Amino acid sequence: MPSAADQPTADFSWSAEEIRRVGHEVADWIATYLTTLPASPVFHPVPTDVAERLLAEPVPERGERVDAILRRFESEIGNYPFGNGHPRFSAWVNSPPAVIGVYAQALAAAMNPSVAGGNHAAVWIEREVLQWFKSIFGFPPESMGLLVSGSSAAAITGLGVARHSAATRRGWDMRCDGAHIVDASGKPVRMLVYETAEAHSCHQKAIELLGIGSAQLRVVPSDGELSMRVEALDAMLTADIATGALPVAVIASAGTVNTGVIDPLPAIADVCAKHGVWMHVDGGYGAPAIMTAEYRAELAAIGRADSVGIDAHKWMYVPVDAGVVLVRDAKLMRDTFSLVPPYLRSDDDKHGVQGPPWLSEFGSEQTRPFRALKVWMALRYFGTSGYASLIAHDIAMARALAARVRASPDFELWEPQGLSIVCFRATPASIAGDDDATDALNQRILAAVQLGGEAFLSSTVLRGRTWLRSCIVNPGTQLDDIAAVFDTIAKTLRSFS
Ligand SMILES: *Cc1c(COP(=O)(O)O)cnc(C)c1O
Question: Do residues 91 and 117 both lie within one domain?
């Protein structure tokens, strides 16, 4: 017997009144969540019994009432976040959502278009957002791009075009004949991709997926600051080209995820131009800093790249996911992905049903979400000058943390401190010179801090050693948070001595 709480299982259409009632409840929850987060513990894991209960649940057979579903959300989901958004959270590169982006996501879902193509607003908004990104990052207006899930997808897309471009120059039809290029005499041609050991792992994944293979990844030495040694890149390219290998791309970081250091982009662009090699910039974390006065010049050479990936869901505070890939050569991008016979191409139908060339011709996805709306609304809301001050604030907070570390005899600061990332480690005199003990101590500190609920940061490995890592991409983080985070870490260290 169905209980009174059950409702008909196929009640698809809601009345306007019901939509409003539930919407107000959801908005209430969001308002409470976002404004009380700073007073909650930064993080606590999902209790074992809750996780086990979730995994043990059978597929719902009868529909449940919406209020019951919302209560489940509140008690078992909404109260176990990963900590991001909390002003004392600075792990990985995870930012809080701009509230307008939260609502934009609901509005986009209400329209629920497939943004494969066509003459509807979502297509034009995505194209407008792409024009804005081209303008911010110095790409020509006739270049192309797409909104994608993130810099990982941007890497697959950008490096996919790079691979197509390199193969085509060798007279090889990659799309038809696959990734095993052979030259005129039937000898295999080795494709190569260049990056430093500091480059994000998503590029290795992309290279494996593109059939190039990680053995073809050439690791360019980095200097003491962990940024690319360009004369080494130049020499490697010269030597590899002399052997008949085919360099496909050089990956340069506009802010590494480990330390925030920026590879020497103008010099890398020069070397790529000299050898005719594709330059892909990984701007997943740092690229938005181009909007600040301080980093505008240093990041300007992003505009010389052949492709770039940017994560608006990181340092532009747009809710996940909101990645952007830009590709300088629009025709090459379309030639890499388009699977529409030429007689169906829609170049001449800007004002008809088909609209401008379909976005699905420029990437691997067909049905695509209306990601652009949240980016469009956030950029309208903040403007580039608003972003400049929010990003500058995050950088100032990182420098404040670095200053505290520098002032403490028990801690060592990784220098140079890059963008809004601070790497540091406890180096108490009692274990001075013992690297293994120092690694172990910092791992213990990290685990205790992460579970303690007062602060949350992550760690990384630099030159083979464990460092604590704080990446501040939260405009809500203030000086008292920085002080509290550092004090928590220092207190944890003392508790171990
Ligand atoms: C996050 C990040 C990536 C990967 O991007 P996703 O959005 O996670 O796919 C690549 N590079 C850098 C520098 C990043 O911060």
Answer: no
Please say which residue of 313, 337, 369 terminates a domain: 369
Q: What is the pLDDT of residues 196-255, one digit of tens each?
A: 999 999 999 999 999 999 999 999 999 999 999 999 999 999 999 999 999 999 999 999
324, burial (CB in 10 Å: exposed 0-12, middle 13-18, buried 19+): buried
The pLDDT of residue 4 is above 70: no
Residue 78 amino acid letter: G
* Model confidence pTM above 0.90: yes
Return the best residue to mutate from 282, 321, 419 for the ligand 1 pocket (most ligand atoms within 8 A of CB).
282
The pLDDT value recorded for residue 343 is 63
**Whether residues 283 and 351 fall in one domain:** yes
18-28 pLDDT, tens digit per residue, is 999 999 999 99
Ligand 1 contact, 282 CB (< 6 A):
yes
Q: Is 315 in the pocket of ligand 1 (CB under 6 A)?
A: no
In a domain, 75, yes or no: no
Domain count, the chain: 2
CA of 284 to the centre of ligand 1 (A): 5
- The residue whose CA has the least distance to atom 7 of ligand 1 is 150
21 within a domain of the structure (yes/no): yes
Containing structural domain, residue 429 = 15-44+81-97+383-497
Cβ of 151 closer than 6 Å to ligand 1, yes or no, is: yes
Task: Give the pLDDT confidence of 288-317 residue by residue, as tens digits.
Answer: 999 999 999 999 999 999 999 999 999 999
Residues 324 and 415 both lie in one domain: no
Residue 197 is part of a domain; what is its CATH number? Answer: 3.40.640.10
Contact yes or no for 312/337 (Cβ under 8 A): no
Are both 444 and 474 inside the same structural domain? yes
The reply to whether ligand 1 has any atom less than 6 angstroms from the CB of 145 is no
Kindly list the distances between the CA atom of residue 216 and the CA atoms of 204, 265, 450, in Å, as whole numbers in the listed order.
Answer: 10, 22, 38
For strand 144-148 and strand 323-327, is the pairing parallel, antiparallel, or unpaired? antiparallel
CA 115 to centroid of ligand 1, rounded, Å: 23
CA of 431 to the centre of ligand 1 (A): 35
225 vs 66, 92, 347, CA distance in Å? Answer: 54, 20, 48
